[in-house]
From TrEMBL:
Name of the molecule in the record: Protein-disulfide isomerase
Signal sequence range: none
Record key words, sorted: Disulfide bond, Isomerase, Membrane, Oxidoreductase, Redox-active center, Signal, Transmembrane, Transmembrane helix
Residues that span the membrane, as ranges: 29-48
Family: Belongs to the thioredoxin family. DsbA subfamily.
UniProt KW rRNA-binding keyword: no
The organism of origin for this protein: Microbispora hainanensis
Annotated Thioredoxin-like fold domain residues: 82-233
Length: 248
């Protein structure tokens, strides 16, 4: 092989190597860019998901709250009759606590905006101890309150202080203390709580409600009588959309 031929061969090899190097460099750049795009998309999706599931900030304004004789409690502005959002709940139910923490402020805001009539139906679904007695004590105590705003504040404190399902909780002393924190002014509240005056009425209401509404568990949320999926109820933005759509 002549010197000139040898130099040409080396040049071709060098050119091929350079071409391969540039090709590999382009592949690495493409891979890096692709990974970066995936990371950005994943981050954006995460932010979107968090925002979708994020609880609304309570506006501070609360619609009028009325305690009915049967134990239900209505939260709605004057003249608002629909859509009706029925909330079937048990104060000892962990999922009910989660719903209240996630979507409770959404219901309050919707009622304050005049976009819904919210009706709370406290019931007892538990049949085993200590959860059954815990639930009965809490619900009976709530029935001792006739002022709507005070009832709502007490309602929220019950969930905030919900005991474990494995221990005896919602003692009379605790319920009375939380009543004071909620601003309960009923003069016979303490006696009513200690004597559990409303247990029988609450048990009857629970049984009738569970049968009439064909409830399988709590929380059960219905809009104009139609039960909504938990994927809607537990996602504040979806719950708001469902209620607002029902009101159109």
């Amino acid at each position: 092989m002549s010197k000139r031929t040898s130099e040409a061969a080396r040049a071709r090899i060098a050119a091929q190597r350079e071409a391969l190097r540039k090709q590999e460099q382009r592949k690495r750049i493409t891979m890096i860019v692709t990974i970066a795009v995936i990371v950005v998309i994943a981050a954006a999706f995460t932010v979107w998901s968090v925002r979708q599931g994020a609880s609304e900030e309570a506006t501070g304004s609360v619609a009028p709250v009325t305690v009915e004789k049967d134990g239900t409690v209505v939260m709605a502005k004057a003249g608002v009759t629909k859509p009706v959002v029925d909330v079937f709940e048990d104060f000892q139910c962990p999922a009910c606590k989660q719903f209240e923490e996630t979507s409770g402020s959404t219901l309050k805001n919707l009622a304050a905006e005049g976009k819904a009539k919210v009706v709370y139906h406290p019931i007892t679904i538990f049949t085993e101890e200590p959860t059954k007695s815990n639930s009965l004590r809490a619900a009976s105590a709530a029935r001792c309150i006739t002022d709507g705003r005070q009832w709502l504040a007490f309602h929220d404190l019950l969930y905030k202080n919900q005991p474990s399902e494995t221990v005896s909780g919602f003692s009379a002393d605790e319920l009375i203390k939380w009543g004071k924190q909620a601003g309960v002014t009923a003069p016979d509240f303490e006696d009513c709580v200690r004597q559990q005056r409303n247990v029988a009425a609450h048990q009857q209401f629970s049984s009738q409600t569970m049968t009439a509404q064909k409830l399988q568990g709590t929380p059960t949320i219905k809009i104009d009588g139609k039960e909504i999926d938990t994927n809607v109820a537990f996602v504040p933005s979806s719950l708001r959309d469902a209620v607002e759509s029902a009101g159109k």
